[in-house]
Amino acid sequence: MTKSFLPTFQLEEENASQYGGSLGVLHSTEGSLPLEVVSISAQIAGLGAKVKLDQTFANHFEQPIEATYIFPLPDRGAVTSFSLWVAGREVQGILKERGEARATYEKAISEGKQAALLEEDRRGTFHLQVGNLPPGESVTVQLCLMVPLDYHDGEAEFRFPLVVAPRYHPGNPVSGESVGHGVHQDTEFTPDASRISPPLLLKNYPYPVQLSLEVVVDADSYQLQPEELASKLCSSQQVLIGKIGSPIYLQLQPGERMDRDFILRLKLGSDHIQSYFFLEESALEWGERNQARVRLSPGTLKEPRHFEVLLLPPKELPEVNRPRDVVFVLDRSYSMNGWKMVAARRATGRMIDSLLDHDRFHVVAFDNTVLACPETERNPTFATNQARYRAIEWLSSVKPSGGTDMQLGLKRAFAWYPPMSEDRDRVLVLITDGQVGNEDHLLQLTSQYANGHYPHVFALGIDQAVNAGFLRRMAELSGGCCEFVESENRLDESLQAIHRSLQSPVLRKINVQAKGGMLLERTIAPQLVPDLFPGRPLQLFGKLEDLEKLPQLVITGIDQEGETWEVELDATTQTRELIAHFWGRRRVRDLEDQYASHEYSNGKELTSEIVQTSLETQVLSRFTAFVAVDHQTQVDSNSPLHRITQPVESPAGWEDKLCDDPGVMYGGMAPACPSDLSSPRSTDFMSALSERTPAPKPGKPQVFRKRKAVSRGTDTFEPVGRTLMRQKSDSDQFGLPSGSPEKSSGILGFFLYLIALLGRFLLALRDFFFKAKKNPSSTEKQLKKLSSSSENREQREK
User: Fold this and answer.
1) Partners of 317 in the beta sheet?
2) What is the per-residue pLDDT for 313?
3) Side by side, which strands form the sheet with 94-97?
């Protein structure tokens, strides 16, 4: 017997205000939440970091539990190992094809064995289940991952996210059981919304999870003295610096909450990172003997080897200001309220002001509708003083409201671009926090809108818990780049780097060839070799074979004057595991994005290649999963199993109203998801939730192809998105928050709108009278509250 249990916390009305006046999830009526300790340990050397993440879960109930935790990891990181620590014993996790891993986990749970399952639902968003945790016991889940550091303009950045922020899920809710245990229902465009929407903790309540974070920085890898490197460090949170030596030890200030990204920046300067070509050591060359690494045999150079290349932009090339066609797409949804909207308007204004007279530009702002600057909408507008002034003046009137229906803004932007010209660069600047759930859908639509002519997408992410994985995907799809801003102060520091990124590439049409070996071209990652921008290095991974000696790489490109530029890099060997993991992660990401953004007749072959690459390099992907089964711990398989979804912090800097009303982040005509845990519900409703049956299997990355009506409760691991699309095209769809008023259905749409409003009002009225019977003394106060909330909701929907 399996029973789903969602923990709730009730406050007396007179005490609620001292905790921010909002209700959320903190403790269950039967005990504390399962997650107790999160420990992060990172070792940074050069432009890479090895990270160990420990998460300790405890069962304070009298029955076995299954804990579900939705959490983030660095989007470029490669999860390479997974294990379960039980009473001092390590149970090593095994990487399997995702469907096979789920079957292994569910079989273990049904037999009463303790097990854990780790899956990836988005780039950087993970889903962990720890099942059959006995009463009074605790276990630790340990992950190891390799994380490349971002590097540009002489600054290296280590970013570790700590919370999954609420996201907007456009489209109508789908019928049937949800595929996960989150607070949002699945929708047609986000068919796994329930797997990426954890419940929220009470605002301003003492945080129940103990967080520890330690970072060790190897000063020798930067050829710097420890004291000099220590002076170049800065972080987003309070950090204690230990004894300064090589290495340098850093520790996060105790008491910090998991409500934002942890960011550590190393301001190295441009002289301490050089271009390099690293070739992994052969598996036959090195081995272990008496716990020491020694050369066992001469080895062979014939077997394929992974390599990594870092190419810094040449300093001697002249800068030529090519004309550009630039569209600024500004997110004005309600999640951008507060300092984020101020920073977004400032950044957009500064970028517009930096345009030259021969540039043409347009400005678009979107929520679940689209606004366009009247000065630039009609025809391609040159960036004259008058046009720039009026565009910046229009920006001051942009206010946050509505949901993040990004497809409307992107579609309007692509429709504006003039015909392609060899003499002009296309640039799309996306300013947003990236909090959307339909990422795969947006990638496919972007591919359709671009029609093979991608502009360089520059993504400016503004948030303390930004959705970096999605924004990086959007940028990499076009060979563009990203910049992340977590505060207004950081925006001031970043404006120069942002301005440099918007300039024309210093090298384009880059080609890589090998001397002394054969380059396997299909293994180059990223598959689309991006252009080289000022201040931003080019990082490539790939495979070489048939090597007769240590090879050279010859990299060529076309500079801004149309001349051919060339450089040769000599190979140096490096340890095997690091480069192989980085290549595997980057290659898998390319294949997953191909699967999500294009129509493919060979979908099964692509899926097979992703799984094969993931298993060969032991890197987790969205088509594979880690599973660990403890055969020594046994619980009664007939006892009820409580399912508990671990709530998370509200992101720092977000408005209370947004976190208290997830309906703002939800699209479609139906009311907000009834499993919203940020407000009190009737006991009958919570009891119904607790009896929820296990969810169907999750799907692969969603691909929206032919729209067929098939059964949703399938175990075949076909993409859920294929079964959920409506029969009409996107341009004909009708929905209140998710669709544009420009495409509503006239009188019929207006009447449907009124019917939806009436239905919501009647449901609210029913809930009010139910509560009034239970608490007659508060009837008058609740009536005022209901009237106010109904008016606010009606205004928002209009």
Assistant:
1) none
2) 86
3) 2-4, 641-645, 65-72, 125-133, 113-122, 624-634, 94-97
Summary mean pLDDT of the chain: 78
**Ramachandran area for residue 171 (φ above 0: left; ψ -120 to 50: alpha; else beta):** left
Phi (first) and psi of residue 688, to 5 degrees = -65, -40
With a cut of 70, say whether residue 739 has pLDDT above it. no
Q: Is the dihedral of CA 749, 751, 755, 757 positive or negative?
A: positive
Find out whether 51 and 41 touch, Cβ atoms under 8 Å.
yes
Which residues make Cβ contacts (< 8 Å) with residue 150, sequence separation at least 6?
Answer: 156, 157, 159
Q: Above pLDDT 90, what percent of the chain?
A: 45
Q: What is the pLDDT of residue 304?
A: 79
Rounded Cα–Cα distance for residues 198 and 665 (Å): 13
Strands 381-382 and 538-545, how do they pair?
unpaired
Chain segment 31-45, per-residue pLDDT in tens: 578 999 999 999 999
572, pLDDT greater than 80: yes
Q: What kind and span of H or E run contains 325? A: strand 324-331
What are 513's strand-pairing partners?
554
| DSSP codes joined into one string, 5-44 | --------HHHHGGGTT------BTTB--SEEEEEEEEEE
Q: Which position has the higher pLDDT, 577 or 609?
A: 609
Measured distance CA(586)–CA(597) in Å, rounded: 16
The answer to whether 753 and 794 have CB atoms below 8 angstroms apart is: no
Which of the two residues, 498 and 110, has the higher pLDDT score? 110
- Rounded Cα distance between 643 and 188, Å, is 26
Structure tokens at 545: 């074979």
Least confident residue range of 450-454, 554-558, 783-787 = 783-787
For 697-710, what is the mean pLDDT? 38
Residue recorded with tokens 């030890």: 249
Query: Three-state SS across 761-797?
Result: HHHHHHHHHHHHHHCHHHHHHHHHHHHHHHHHHHHHH
pLDDT band at 229 (very low <50, low <70, confident <90, very high): confident
Is 475:498 a contact under the CB 8 Å cutoff? no
pTM > 0.90:
no
Q: Residue 629: how many CB atoms within 10 A of its CB?
A: 22
Dist. CA 569–CA 107, nearest whole Å: 52
Whole-number Cα distances in Å, 364 to 58, 429, 433, 479, 666: 49, 10, 16, 22, 22
Query: In 253-338, which ranges are continuous DSSP H helix?
Result: none
pLDDT exceeds cutoff 60 at 468:
yes
What pLDDT was estimated at residue 560? 83
Per-residue pLDDT of 383-431, as tens digits, reads: 999 999 999 999 999 999 889 999 999 999 998 998 888 889 899 999 9
- Determine the Cα–Cα distance for residues 1 and 14; give it in Å rounded to an integer: 39
> Residue for token digits 């300039």?
503
| CA 97 vs CA 222, 613, 699, 717: distances in Å | 39, 11, 12, 10
Interval 269-325: pLDDT, tens: 777 778 899 988 764 443 443 333 333 334 445 577 899 999 988 777 666 788 999
Closest CA to 261 of 78, 68, 71: 71
For residue 761, which of 734, 795, 791, 733 has the smallest C-alpha distance? 791
Multiple choice CATH, 324-501, 3.40.50.410, 3.40.50.12780, 3.40.50.1100, 3.90.1640.30: 3.40.50.410
Burial (CB count <10 Å: 0-12, 13-18, 19+), residue 254: exposed
| Residues 117, 95: Cα–Cα separation, whole Å | 10
CA distance 296 to 398: 67
